[in-house]
Amino acid sequence: MSGAATLSHAGCAEAPVLRERGQREVFCGLTGIIWLHRKIQDAFFLIVGSRTCAHLMQSAAGVMIFAEPRFATAIIEERDLAGLADANEELDRVVGQVLARRPDIRMLFLVGSCPSEVIKLDLSRAARRLDRAHAPAVRVLAYSGSGIETTFTQGEDACLAALVPEMPASAKAPALLVAGVLAEVVEDQMRRLFDALGVGPVGFLPPRRARELPAVGPGTRVLLAQPFLAETARALEARGARHLPAPFPLGAEGTTGWLRAAAEEWGVPQARFREVTAMGEQRARAAIARHRDVLAGRSLFFLPDSQLEIPLARFLARELGMRPIEIGTPYLHRAHLAAELPLLPRDALLSEGQDVDRQLDRCRAARPDLTVCGLGLANPLEAEGLATKWSIELVFTPIQGYDQAGDLAELFARPLVRRAALTV
Ligand code: SF4
C-alpha cells in the first residue's frame, strides 16, 4: 500500500511534524483487556469476535495462564450472518452462562471487534437489553476494541469512555479525578502524595470495583495518567469536568510536574509542595542515575505504537541523556501533550501516523542504538542487528511515579546491557 506524507509545524512545540498515512503495524484495542481486567477486579470482558480475536487474546494473555481469566471470546461465525436475531439470542445465552458461573461479576463489557459479521451486530443495543435483564446485580456495557484504525491502547480509552455515563453526578465541590489505568501500587503511592498535599477528595477511573465509580461534575478536575485517553477526556468534559494540563507522571520530572498541576489548582503553597515531593523526587533521581552510564548518549528511535512515545522520549532525553532521532506516535493530541512537547529535544523528528516501510527505511538508515516498537517489528529488526524494546511492555509494567522511575529507566537499559553481553 502506498502512503502519503506531509510536513507541518507543531504550534506550541514549533517543531515540524511529519504526518504519514500508510500501512501500519499495530496491535488492536482488544489487548487493553489484559490490563483492564486486572484493574477492575469484578468486571468480565466478553469479546464478541472471530477465532482470530480469540487467538490474539490467548497469545497476548499467555503469561496469565494460571490466573482465572475474566475475559472470553464469543465467536460469531460466518453462518450467523443469515440471522442476526440468532446471533443476539446466542449472545444472551453466553452472557447468561458466564454470569451464572461467575456470581462475583458486577460489570460485564461486551467488547466489539472488527470482523464484518460482528460489525453488523448492534452491541450497544444488546448491552442495553442485557443490562435490563441482569439489573441490579450486574451492569452490562459495550465498547469497541476493533482493530481498524486504532492503536492497542485505544481499547482502554474506549472502555473508560463507556464508563463515564455511568459515573454518578457530583456536587460542585472540587474533587480530583485521575483518569487512566494505574497499577494498584502506583495508585496507592499517588493517593498518599495527594493526601499529604491536601489535594482531594481523589477518585480513580477506572476504580478497582465496578460499584466504586467516582462521581463527576463541574467541580471535577481531571489529571490524565495516560496520554491515550482522548475520548474519555471528551466524555468527562461533556459532564462538566475540567482537564488539568500536565506532563505525564513518567520519571522524576514528569511526576513532579503532574503532581504540581493538581497542587497549583488546590492552591498548595510552594514550600509545602517541596516538602511533600522532595524525598520522592530525590529517590527517583538516584534510581534513574544508576542507568545513566548505559543510556547517556545512546540514540533512540520510536516507531508509533502505544501513544506513550512522547512522554517517554522526554524522560529518556532529559533525565537519561539519550538522543531521540525520531519520535513516532500514532496520534498527536496537542492539548493533552501541551506540557510535553516543549520539553522534547529540538533536533528529534516528530512523526504522527505511520507508513511502515518508509519509517523502517529511516530507522535502518539511522542505525539507532535502541528502537522502541511493536511486537511485530521487533524480531525482524533484531535479526538485522538492532536492539529493540517492545512498547507493549510499558503498558503492562508499573512505570508511573517516583518509585517506579528507576524501573522505567531499567526497562530501556536492559536490551542494551543484554546486547553488550552477547557481543563481548
Ligand atoms: S478485533 Fe480485528 S484486529 Fe483485533 S484480533 Fe479481532 S480480527 Fe484481529
Walk me through the topology.
Layout lengths: L3 E6 L6 E6 L11 H7 L3 E7 L1 H10 L10 E5 L8 H18 L5 E6 L3 H4 L3 H12 L4 E6 L9 H10 L11 E5 L4 H14 L4 E4 L14 E5 L5 H9 L3 E2 L7 H15 L4 H20 L2 H4 L3 E4 L6 H12 L2 E7 L19 E6 L1 H11 L3 E4 L1 H9 L4 E3 L2 H4 L8 H19 L1
Parallel strand pairs: 2-13, 3-4, 3-5, 5-6, 7-8, 7-9, 9-10, 11-12, 11-14, 12-13, 14-15
Antiparallel strand pairs: 1-2
Helix pairs in contact: 6-8, 9-10, 10-16
In brief:
The chain has 424 residues and is of the alpha/beta class.
With strands numbered from the N-terminus, the spatial order across the biggest sheet is: 1-2-13-12-11-14-15
CATH superfamily of the largest domain: Nitrogenase molybdenum iron protein domain
CATH architecture of the largest domain: 3-Layer(aba) Sandwich
Radius of gyration: 22 Å
Number of domains: 3
Give the strand tally.
15
Q: What class would the helix/strand composition place it in? A: alpha/beta
| Average residue-wise pLDDT | 90
Total DSSP helices: 16
Bin the strand percentage. 15-25%
Q: Write the CATH fold name of the largest domain.
A: Rossmann fold
Small molecules (ligands, ions, cofactors) in the structure: iron/sulfur cluster
Enumerate the spans where pLDDT stays under 50 for 5 or more consecutive residues. none
Enzyme class: oxidoreductase
Pathway: Porphyrin-containing compound metabolism; bacteriochlorophyll biosynthesis (light-independent)
InterPro entries: LIPOR_BchN/ChlN, Nase/OxRdtase_comp1, Protochl_reductN
GO molecular function: 4 iron, 4 sulfur cluster binding; ATP binding; metal ion binding; oxidoreductase activity, acting on iron-sulfur proteins as donors; oxidoreductase activity, acting on the CH-CH group of donors, iron-sulfur protein as acceptor
